[in-house]
Amino acid sequence: MAIIVRLDVMLARRKMSLSALAAAVDITLANLSILKSDKAKAIRFTTLEAICQALQCQPGDLLEYVPDDSPSPPSG
């Protein structure tokens, strides 16, 4: 996949749990888990905006473009 989701990194930087973010953004924990585990196929701009507002970050802090021909980054 060419777009990597770095939600776990921002959660750690903000010392926020996935459950707390789910409550703040009013999105199900299951849907946030899918996004966090990099299995999501799409995200609505309204959801991205709400996550950015809750984490006080920019979309670029959460999403990274990696060309398909690049080696996969280590997960973690």
From TrEMBL:
* InterPro entries with a match to the protein in the record: Cro/C1-type_HTH, Lambda_DNA-bd_dom_sf
Organism for this UniProt entry: Hymenobacter algoricola
Which keywords annotate this record?
Signal
Instruction: Tell me the PROSITE patterns matching this sequence.
Output: HTH_CROC1 (PS50943)
Q: Which residues form the signal peptide?
A: 1-22
What this protein is called in its record is: Helix-turn-helix transcriptional regulator
**The HTH cro/C1-type domain, residue ranges:** 13-62
Q: SUPFAM superfamilies from the entry?
A: lambda repressor-like DNA-binding domains
* Keyword Signal annotated: yes
Q: Is Signal among this UniProt entry's keywords? A: yes
